[in-house]
Amino acid sequence: MNESRAVRNISDTARWVAYFRARETQRQDALFCDPYAERLAGERGFQIANTLPDGNKHEWAWVARTHLFDEFVLREIHAGAELVVNLAAGLDARPYRMLLPASLQWVEVDLPEVISYKEALLADVQPNCLLERISLDLSNLDPRRSLFADLNRRAKKIIVMTEGLLIYFTAEEVGSLAVDLASASGFHSWIIDLASPGQLALMQAKIGQQLSGVGAAFKFGPREGAEFFVKHGWQPQDVQGLLKTAAKLGRAPRELRSLLPEPKVMPQSYPWTGVCLLRKG
């Protein structure tokens, strides 16, 4: 039955995201170049984007998110980070496409099927840093905590990335992950993407039903915004909205520009998404 769905499981969403990176890479004025995105998206990624309702409509948001994660990761590496931990890494190709120190450690964590798919497709290329992949379901708490303890012993200054992950967790699950990360002394900074309650409701109404049916329901859009993480040991250092970023980069759709500038006090209904750099509180 699932073969007839646009998205068959949560791992398929990684192919969807790779589709947008491939589309941006094809532009003459591309903001980043991911020569592996089309390969990783595959025919399935293009099918998802062109089958889901509004599946290829919000390219600007995916591009802005990728750009901001790139910017924050490079900022932290230049500030002395020795290890990047990419949780639910999906089909991200940053270790291959970015100019990184050869001595930088980079660890990708994801479900076994994602890891095996990615390793097969990228077997013929070499990363620009010391890359390791680990198969793990992050909802399994004891193995997750054991992994974090092991990683914490590898470096004194560690960046954590969770791009496209937290929205699939409940607030309780996000809080638990935040506490586990904060408990590791070397986990210095954490880069996340975040949605407002208003944006979460829009996403749930437009494509949420299809994704819920395959275990990829949208759940997390905290009323407190990035301040949600303060009580769990993390302080927001830099918070950038996707629409504001897209407008700066020449990618914002005309019909959404009326939402700018972002309100200083954001109503719960305001459809905001962004990327946040958190540091240990």
- Rg calc: 18 Å
Quickly count the domains. 1
Identify the CATH architecture.
3-Layer(aba) Sandwich
Structural class: alpha/beta
Helix content: 25-40%
Regions with little confidence, pLDDT below 50 for 5+ residues: none
* Total helical segments: 9
Average pLDDT metric: 91
Biggest sheet record = 7 strands, mixed
Order the strands across the largest sheet as they lie in space: 3-2-1-4-5-7-6
Shape assignment:
globular
CATH topology: Rossmann fold
Per CATH, the class reads Alpha Beta
Strand residue content: 15-25%
Task: Report the order of strands and helices.
Answer: HHHEHEHEHEHEHEHE
Beta-strand segment tally: 7
Q: Could you name the CATH homologous superfamily?
A: Vaccinia Virus protein VP39
How far is it from the N-terminal to the C-terminal residue, by CA? 47 Å
